[in-house]
Specification:
By secondary structure, the protein is mainly α. It has helices at 2-15, 27-32, 35-68, 72-80, 87-98, 103-110, 122-146, 150-158, 163-192, 195-199, 208-217, 222-242. Mean pLDDT is 88; it is low at 247-253.
């Protein structure tokens, strides 16, 4: 923990107080909390929220379908398999699929819709990011809903509860821990991902992860890049505290 966690974080904090000449300064934090980076922070949170929301809306019903299916092992394997493939390879695959002469546009041409601009925009970024993070949202939710005793749901209906009441009083409380874990492992990496913004969004979406990469590898402004990294570490810590799964939530009366 000291070597692989504490020391690297301490090093990032140390460099966040250094300028390009190696002098101690607070200008990095002053610049970061200026208008430009605050807008970038807002857009980073916005797109991370959208990706997390899309993953949640797809994962929750899908988790129930899989948990009730007799082919659940095969379905889970099909969902897990893409996570074994390098993210860079999957991103390049979508460049081919979404390209002007790619498979998706060829199909759209075939059905009469015509060629669409699927790359270098917000749609392409959200679609590809949601595809990549979907298994990380789905698996924790699946573990939660698969463990729900079906007798609780049947008893709720027998006692006169409708679908909405059963969901809010039985299903959601018993699966909320999986939802919180899914949000944590999806929102945090989506907040700082930069590879997809480069390749799919064509730098039309600039988030904090892209800014860190830019400062470390291009502008060589390690201090400002470290400052952004410190901010992200703090945000990630806050998110982990808010989605803490220490207390299990049972069925509410």
């Amino acid at each position: 923990m000291l070597v692989f966690v504490v020391f690297p974080i301490g090093l990032i904090v140390y460099y966040s107080f250094k300028d390009t000449q190696g002098n101690f300064t607070l200008l990095n934090y002053t610049e970061f909390f200026g208008k430009t980076y605050m807008w970038m922070t807002f857009y980073s949170f916005w797109y991370a929220f959208l990706v997390t929301l899309v993953c949640l809306m797809l994962s929750y019903p899908l988790a129930f379908i899989i948990s009730r299916s007799k082919y659940k092992e095969i379905l889970l394997l099909l969902i897990i398999l893409p996570t074994w493939i390098n993210i860079l390879l999957k991103t390049y695959a979508f460049i081919g699929l979404f390209g002007k002469h790619g498979a998706i546009n060829s199909f759209l041409e075939f059905i009469g819709i015509g060629t669409q601009n699927l790359l270098f925009n917000s749609f392409g970024f959200i679609f590809v990011a949601s595809y990549i993070f979907l298994p990380f949202m789905l698996l924790p939710i699946y573990n939660s809903v698969a463990g729900i005793n079906k007798n609780f749901i049947d008893a709720s209906y027998d006692l006169g509860a409708d679908l909405k009441t059963t969901f809010t009083k039985i299903i959601l409380p018993l699966s909320i821990e999986g939802v919180k874990t899914g949000i944590q492992v999806t929102f945090i990496p989506a907040l700082s991902i930069f590879m997809i913004t480069r390749l799919i969004a064509g730098n039309k979406i600039i988030n904090l992860g892209t800014a860190i990469e830019e400062h470390f590898l291009v502008t060589q402004n390690v201090g400002l890049g470290s400052t952004i990294a410190v901010f992200l570490i703090i945000v990630m810590g806050v998110i982990m505290v808010l989605t803490n799964n220490k207390n299990r939530i049972g069925v509410k009366k």
